[in-house]
Amino acid sequence: MKLTGQAITVFFAVTLLASGVAAAEPMTADNGNIQLPELDCIIEPSEVVDVGSAVPGVVESILADRNDQIEKGMVIARLESSVERAALELTRERANQNTAIEQRQEGARFSHLTQNRN
Does residue 115 lie within any of the structural domains? Predict the structure, then answer.
């Protein structure tokens, strides 16, 4: 008995169907109302870059999340800056005090000049 290529193909197809092997269906993960397929893979980034800060510090918050697309110039993290804010406020107060002192000194000079003229 001689089997042709077509008969062998039909034989294997029937055998596979009879054994219960079916096409693989993607598994799904339920995320609210949307069903997404579970993918078992690793996605490599298109580009890896080093990021840094002009000053050293402690990270207060990270604004970017995994899988976010980041573009040049985007803020991705914030440093804890309470010490810098306090120093800035202190400098502003000192500047305001110096301005008030200078105004009083100029007023006193003006009064002295006015008194000397009269």
Answer: yes
Using the predicted structure, report yes or no on whether residue 27 has a pLDDT greater than 70. Answer: no
Amino acid present at 87: A
C-alpha distances (whole Å) from 61 to each of 77, 85, 86 are 6, 17, 19
Structural domain containing residue 111: 91-118
Q: What is the dihedral of CA 44, 48, 53, 57, to 10 degrees?
A: 40
pTM of the model as a whole: 0.40
Structural domain tally of the chain? 1
Q: Residue 88 carries which side chain, given as an amino acid letter? A: L
110 lies in some domain = yes
- Please state, rounded to an integer, the average pLDDT across all residues of the chain: 79
Mean pLDDT of 14-27: 59
